[in-house]
């Protein structure tokens, strides 16, 4: 339990690092550049308005990416209690596959393994839908899983893919705007 607890705490270190860098960049831009360095009021106002728009969108998309839970398969993909007991008792892979085929006959599953076997997650004990993968970091099967991102401490998949792409786009715009406006003062 101690190791798992330490892993959960350490998983938030990259997120905390990003938060600290963003907080520092906010202070440096708003206070050091706009308040103390720029003398033109019109320039300050334009810079602050555009900066805050990009900052808010960046923080919003980052937060949504972090705190939107990964989508998991619905209960219809879980084996019934009887099928689960029969599956666990069976030692032969062919017989286990027959149990899975019966359970999956009415499910919308088109993807199988290379040997035409029904994909099954032993950890989550469910039949895997198409494009579903088990994340070892989150210890859950994730629909349309892209990857586990340590910078958001979350899986990027069906439920938060849009927010992740927005986060990437807004972070790029944020960095480009800050770099473009700060560069002339170096």
Quick structural summary:
Helix content is 56%, strand content 9%. The chain has 186 residues and is mainly alpha-helical.
Give me the secondary-structure topology.
Elements: H1 2-10, H2 13-37, H3 41-67, H4 81-89, H5 93-104, E1 120-121, E2 126-127, E3 133-135, E4 140-142, E5 147-149, E6 154-156, H6 161-182
Antiparallel strand pairs: 1-2, 3-4, 5-6
Helix pairs in contact: 2-3, 3-6, 4-5
Observed structural traits:
two-stranded antiparallel sheet; 9% strand; 2 domains; mainly alpha; 186 residues
Rg to the nearest angstrom?
24 Å
Share in β-strands: 5-15%
- What is the string of SSEs from the N terminus onward? HHHHHEEEEEEH
For the terminal residues, how far apart are their CA atoms? 51 Å
Fraction in helix: 55-70%
The mean pLDDT is 96
* SS-derived structural category: mainly alpha
Q: Provide the spatial order of strands within the biggest beta sheet.
A: 1-2
Subcellular location: Membrane
Enzyme class: transferase
Pfam families: DHHC
Family: Belongs to the DHHC palmitoyltransferase family.
How would you characterize the overall build of this protein?
- Belongs to the DHHC palmitoyltransferase family.
- It comes from Erpornis zantholeuca.
- This is Palmitoyltransferase.
- Pfam families: DHHC.
- There is one protein chain.
- The chain is mainly alpha-helical.
- It folds into two domains: 2-69 and 150-185, no CATH class; 75-131, no CATH class.
- Helix content is 56%, strand content 9%.
- It is built from six helices and six strands; from the N terminus they run H-H-H-H-H-E-E-E-E-E-E-H.
- The protein has helices spanning 2-10, 13-37, 41-67, 81-89, 93-104, 161-182; strands spanning 120-121, 126-127, 133-135, 140-142, 147-149, 154-156.
- The strands form three sheets. Strands 1-2 form a two-stranded antiparallel sheet.
- The mean pLDDT is 96.
